[in-house]
Amino acid sequence: MRTVALLGAGVSGLLGFATVASADEAEHGLGVANYPWPHAGILSSYDHASIRRGHQVYQQVCASCHSMSLISYRDLVGVAYTEDETKAMAAEIEVVDGPNDEGEMFTRPGKLSDRFPQPYANEQAARFANGGAYPPDLSLITKARHNGQNYVFALLTGYRDPPAGVMIREGLHYNPYFPGGAIAMPKMLIDGAVEYEDGTPATEAQMGKDVVTFLSWAAEPEMEERKLMGFKWIFVLSLALLQAAYYRRLRWSVLKSRRLVLDVVN
Amino acid sequence: MPSNTVSISKLLWFKNVRADEEPVDQKKYLEEGCKPKCVKQLRAYEACVKRIEGDESGHKHCTGQYFDYWACIDKCVSSLP
């Protein structure tokens, strides 16, 4: 009697999954293609001109909603801008500092040591300004999402009309790559939205590529040094492996080539 | 001449665009070019759209065929040099 009840419960439980499975595809988001990033090879460095352009895109398009609270202005020196350029850029923002000798907080122009400015005071303010959705901090975003670089590029350049039969509510936008398909962020990368300093035509795909390169650098600034170190040490350790293998076999040859004789004792 | 991105990137075909022309978005251009490769999925999607035409329940949708089509296009676009 109990087994029949259990079996019934199991079957109805499995049937419950039938409707969930049909929504599965949109839930996971459309699979992302792997693009040929210039910095993807085993000994490839970042395209620093692209990092510079990407920072420009971030500043002009994304920074009004997305913070990058782990990056300081000094991180950009030698990577995308000269020290003087970075100092000038930092000086354009106002930073709250203090307290001073009178115990008051005061504002001053930014310095190299300051972090990138936050668009909102806290998460609640960010949610309130964006219809309940929190624009995530982008400092580590390419590491914080599966297949991050390709995912972010696909997401930014993938805003399309929804498929037939799919209704997106007012305030959300359709993006097939976003899990669930309905994202709060509208399409931000539009041809010509940014005028690049170096004169590169700012198409959607170009801005997407540059901003993702910038975000990749922000998440993994150590990448170039890491690759060089990795290559050097893997090479050195392979030689050490060969030496160790030879030495082991040399020492063990004595035992491996011995002969044992079993004799009968009277 | 502005120094453009690394040559391996698919975004370096600007030499084909005249200075007075409005640059075309590279990804859209490649997606257009990939359409003939994915005709089967496109037809399947269009057939689905026709099938669910006039559906009142709101439960019918063509996400599956839409995903198949765009997965095909994405694969084609990312494999082009």
Largest sheet of chain A: 2 strands, antiparallel
Query: What's the pLDDT, averaged over the residues of chain A?
Result: 91
The fraction of residues in strands of chain B falls at under 5%
Under CATH at level 1, the class of the domain at 45-71 and 115-220 in chain A stands as Mainly Alpha
Largest interface: A-B, 35 and 38 residues
Chain oligomer state: heterodimer
| Shape field of chain A | extended
CATH architecture of the domain at 45-71 and 115-220 in chain A: Orthogonal Bundle
CATH topology of the domain at 45-71 and 115-220 in chain A: Cytochrome Bc1 Complex, Chain D, domain 2
Tell me the fraction of residues in β-strands of chain A, as a range.
under 5%
CATH level 4 superfamily of the domain at 25-79 in chain B: Ubiquinol-cytochrome C reductase hinge domain
Which spans of chain A have pLDDT < 50 for at least 5 consecutive residues? 13-21
Distance between the first and last residues' Cα of chain A: 74 Å
**Radius of gyration of chain A, whole Å:** 28 Å
What distance separates the N and C termini of chain B? 23 Å
What is the number of E strands of chain A?
4
- The general outline of chain B is elongated
Distinct helical segment count of chain B = 3
Function (chain B): Component of the ubiquinol-cytochrome c oxidoreductase, a multisubunit transmembrane complex that is part of the mitochondrial electron transport chain which drives oxidative phosphorylation.
Pfam family, one (chain B): UCR_hinge
Membrane topology (chain B): Peripheral membrane protein
Family (chain B): Belongs to the UQCRH/QCR6 family.
